[in-house]
Write a structure and sequence with these properties.
The complex is a heterodimer of chains A (about 150) and B (about 60). Chain A is mostly helical and about 150 residues long. Chain A is built from seven helices and no strands. With about 60 residues, chain B is mainly α. The chains are: A mainly alpha (about 150), B mainly alpha (about 60).
Chain lengths: ~150, ~60
C-alpha cells in the first residue's frame, strides 16, 4: 500500500488529537481530513481503519481478541473518550472494535465512522504501551508495515 | 524505528492484554478493515456535517 504524502500528516494529526483528548483540535483535524477532497479523504479514513485494525491485532499478538475482551475494551474506550467525544459510546465502541477484530468495515455512517476510526485508533495506538514507548513509534511501525 | 525498539504492553487499567511481540500484525487482506470500507461518495460531506454538529448543534438525544 502506498501512503500519500498528502494524506499521512493529516492522519497523524488526527490521531494525535485523539491521543491528546482535545475536543476542538480533534474536530479541526477531521475537518482537515475533509479538506483533502473526496478521494484523499476516503483514503485517509481507510488508512485510519487499517491502522486501527493493525493496532488492535498487534496488541493482541495477531489473534482475534475474545468477545469478553472486546466488550471490556469498548467500555474502556468509551470511558476514556467521554470528555472529548460525542459519539464514542460503549455501543459504538463495541461495534467498532468487533468489526475491526473480525476484519470487517464498521457499519456506521461516515461521520461516525471517522470519529471512531481516528478517535478509537488513537486510543488503540496509545493505551497499551510500556512506559518508555511512544505511540508515534508504534504508528510508524504500522505505517511501515502497511507500505512494505 | 526498528521493530525491536517498541513493545506493546497491557493497559494499566485493564490488564486485558499482556506484553506482546513487537512485530506488527496486519489484518487479513491488503489493508484489512480499511479496504473499501467507505462508500463511493460523500466522505467530505459526511465529515463536514459531523464537524458542524460538534461545533454548533445537535447533541446526542436531540433531533
Amino acid at each position: 500500500v502506498k501512503i500519500s504524502n498528502e494524506v499521512e500528516p493529516v492522519v497523524r494529526e488526527a490521531f494525535a488529537t485523539s491521543v491528546a483528548g482535545e475536543r476542538d483540535r480533534f474536530t479541526t483535524a477531521l475537518e482537515s481530513v475533509a479538506a483533502l477532497g473526496e478521494d484523499r479523504a476516503r483514503e485517509a479514513l481507510e488508512l485510519a481503519l487499517s491502522v486501527s485494525s493493525s493496532a488492535l491485532l498487534t496488541v493482541h499478538r495477531g489473534a482475534r481478541p475474545g468477545d469478553e475482551q472486546l466488550a471490556r475494551l469498548a467500555g474502556e474506550l468509551a470511558d476514556d473518550a467521554e470528555d472529548w467525544s460525542d459519539d464514542i459510546t460503549p455501543a459504538n465502541a463495541a461495534m467498532f472494535l468487533y468489526a475491526l477484530a473480525d476484519g470487517r468495515a464498521p457499519a456506521a455512517e461516515t461521520g461516525l465512522l471517522a470519529e471512531l476510526a481516528f478517535g478509537g485508533g488513537g486510543w488503540l495506538l496509545s493505551s497499551f504501551l510500556p512506559g518508555d514507548a511512544k505511540w508515534t513509534a508504534f504508528l510508524d511501525q504500522i505505517l511501515d508495515s502497511l507500505e512494505s | 524505528m526498528s521493530a525491536e525498539t517498541i513493545g506493546v504492553a497491557s493497559a494499566a487499567t485493564s490488564g486485558v492484554w499482556g506484553v506482546v511481540s513487537s512485530v506488527v500484525h496486519l489484518p487479513p487482506g491488503a489493508v484489512g478493515a480499511g479496504a473499501g470500507a467507505i462508500g463511493v461518495l460523500g466522505t467530505v460531506q459526511a465529515i463536514k456535517a459531523w464537524a458542524q454538529t460538534r461545533r454548533y448543534g445537535r447533541k446526542k438525544g436531540e433531533q
